[in-house]
């Protein structure tokens, strides 16, 4: 494992850079969700917004930040390594032109068939509420062009990551949140003057945020040497290779998006507010996924793609294993914290304005169920791009179909008793099975990797997490009888529990000598405390 030490340190530094930028975007994203919670709570307007945004966002996950991103990075990295600068930039221009044309057509279709799309996604109970489908369709038409803008943003992001620029692409989501917050709040105030509901203003703000997400990356892209030239060539070998990778990747990702549709459909049958509870919980759950899973995946992908292009399986194996252990180090304790502190976190973050105590309780129930699958979400984000880099999309496709089937089966078995909690639990259990399947498939694909090393690292992480859980349990009971006088006191109490738990966990993990953590700590110590 020592040969991968340098690359592990590089990934850790890159992940730290990306993580800092992603942390900024997630904090702004939480502020955005707080605005929604304060203005709209959980009910008619926000249910409509969630369903409306889910349609273009689902296609974004499927095409832009899923299949397109992974396929583009794999091929662009190979061009950057082996084809020279001129052909590399020509490929980028070809991809941008091609997807401008294709996705513009898709956006027009989405706008035209918005009513049908909404009715397809929701249950009769949702449709029977006067004006709810009409409002959802209106919001869908406003936000559908977001698909085109964010797809181009993903191409720019992949280009910059391959060129070793991580911070600005990771910060792009912050541009989106700032634009959607400032624009959305402004338009939400203005819209009622024109006889439109305030939620329409938030939809317009979402589009403004998407434009800012793309535009904010362009100066850095031009600084790398890129110059846009319209180059539309259907027969470009690089584009055809990307499309060949994308087709099975889209098929592989489609079941995951079907899960979103299935869960939206079932949630719409559970009464008003269920869609909102699940959305608020998922946003909080995705906070650590974004910081840890996305950061590690973004930092690992170019390294993995380079080793795949060089056919260096030994270094590829070592890099994947180290990245997975880093993911476990970060996500397993985060799961413990989210499960044990779900209600105080949600109360502090969301419970203002129209967001009441009942909504807090229901949202916390969903958050606990989502949190069980946190480690699997992060791990899958690391493992799937490895298959793409190796030009093998068969196993991600099989894993996605497995996830879809398990999700539906678990929902059908549990929704009657667990209600909205069943929808969160089903995703967590299905994603865990997906990770186990992909891990086994990757073991065969790369001719084995050190399972004993992985198991030893995982055991240390679990042990440190149990120590942290015991500390949190004791603190919770110690403070249970204390009724906080103000929000600031409650925030201070929660911050104390989180800070001391993280410190205890980090100390335990460092004493257990997890190599990935000690290497990062030693590098930080060398930077800030030179001998």
Description of the molecule:
It is a single chain. α1 packs parallel to α13, α2 packs parallel to α12 and α12 (274-310) runs parallel beside α15. The chain is built from 21 helices and no strands. By secondary structure, it is an all-alpha fold. The chain has one domain. Helix content is 84%, strand content 0%. It is globular.
Structural topology:
Elements: H1 5-40, H2 44-82, H3 85-112, H4 114-121, H5 124-127, H6 132-143, H7 146-162, H8 167-190, H9 198-215, H10 218-223, H11 237-268, H12 274-310, H13 313-340, H14 342-350, H15 357-371, H16 374-389, H17 394-418, H18 420-445, H19 451-479, H20 487-511, H21 515-528
Helix pairs in contact: 1-8, 1-12, 1-13, 1-21, 2-3, 2-6, 2-7, 2-11, 2-12, 3-7, 4-6, 6-9, 7-8, 7-9, 8-9, 11-17, 12-13, 12-15, 12-16, 12-18, 13-15, 13-16, 13-19, 14-15, 15-18, 16-18, 17-18, 19-20
């Amino acid at each position: 494992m020592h040969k991968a030490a340098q690359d592990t340190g590089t990934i850790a530094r890159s992940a730290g850079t990306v993580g800092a930028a992603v942390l900024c975007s997630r904090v702004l994203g939480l502020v955005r969700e707080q605005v929604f919670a304060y203005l709209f709570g959980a009910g008619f307007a926000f249910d409509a917004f969630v369903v409306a945004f889910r349609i273009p966002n689902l296609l974004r996950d499927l095409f832009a930040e899923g299949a397109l991103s992974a396929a583009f990075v794999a091929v662009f990295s190979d061009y950057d390594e082996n084809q020279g600068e001129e052909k590399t930039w020509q490929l980028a221009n070809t991809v941008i032109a091609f997807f401008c044309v294709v996705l513009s057509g898709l956006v027009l279709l989405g706008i035209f068939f918005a009513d049908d799309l909404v009715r397809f996604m929701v249950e009769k109970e949702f449709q029977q509420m006067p004006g709810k489908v009409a409002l959802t369709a209106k919001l869908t038409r406003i936000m559908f062009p977001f698909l085109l803008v964010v797809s181009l943003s993903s191409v720019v992001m992949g280009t910059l990551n391959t060129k070793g620029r991580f911070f600005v692409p990771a910060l792009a989501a912050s541009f989106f949140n700032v634009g959607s917050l400032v624009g959305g709040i402004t338009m939400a105030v203005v819209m009622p003057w024109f006889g439109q509901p305030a939620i329409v203003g938030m939809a317009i703000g979402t589009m403004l945020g998407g434009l800012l997400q793309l535009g904010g990356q362009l100066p850095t892209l031009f600084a790398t040497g890129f110059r846009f030239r319209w180059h539309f060539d259907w027969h470009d070998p690089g584009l055809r290779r990307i499309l060949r990778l994308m087709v099975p990747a889209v098929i592989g990702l489609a079941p995951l998006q079907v899960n979103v549709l299935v869960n939206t459909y079932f949630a719409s049958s559970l009464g008003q507010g269920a869609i909102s509870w699940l959305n608020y919980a998922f946003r909080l759950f995705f906070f650590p996924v974004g910081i840890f899973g996305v950061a590690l995946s973004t930092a690992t992908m170019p390294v993995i793609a380079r080793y795949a292009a060089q056919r260096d399986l030994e270094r590829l194996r070592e890099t994947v294993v180290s990245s997975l252990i880093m993911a476990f180090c970060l996500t397993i304790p985060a799961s413990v914290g989210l499960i044990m502190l779900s209600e105080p976190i949600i109360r502090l973050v969301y419970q203002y304005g129209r967001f009441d105590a009942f909504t807090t309780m229901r949202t916390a129930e969903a958050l606990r169920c989502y949190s069980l699958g946190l480690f699997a979400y992060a791990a899958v984000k690391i493992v799937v791009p490895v298959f793409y880099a190796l030009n093998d999309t068969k196993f991600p496709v099989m894993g996605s179909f497995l996830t879809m089937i398990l999700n539906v089966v678990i929902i059908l078995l549990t929704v009657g008793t667990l209600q909205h909690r069943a929808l969160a639990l089903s995703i967590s259990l299905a994603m865990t099975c997906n990770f186990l399947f992909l891990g086994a498939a990757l073991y065969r694909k790369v001719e084995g990797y050190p399972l004993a090393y992985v198991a030893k690292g995982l055991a240390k992480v679990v042990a440190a997490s149990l120590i942290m859980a015991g500390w949190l349990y004791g603190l919770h009971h110690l403070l249970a009888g204390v009724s906080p006088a103000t929000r600031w006191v409650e925030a201070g109490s929660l911050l104390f529990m989180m800070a001391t738990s993280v410190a205890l966990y980090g100390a335990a993990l460092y004493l257990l000598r997890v190599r990935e953590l000690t290497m990062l700590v030693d590098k930080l110590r060398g930077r800030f405390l030179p001998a």
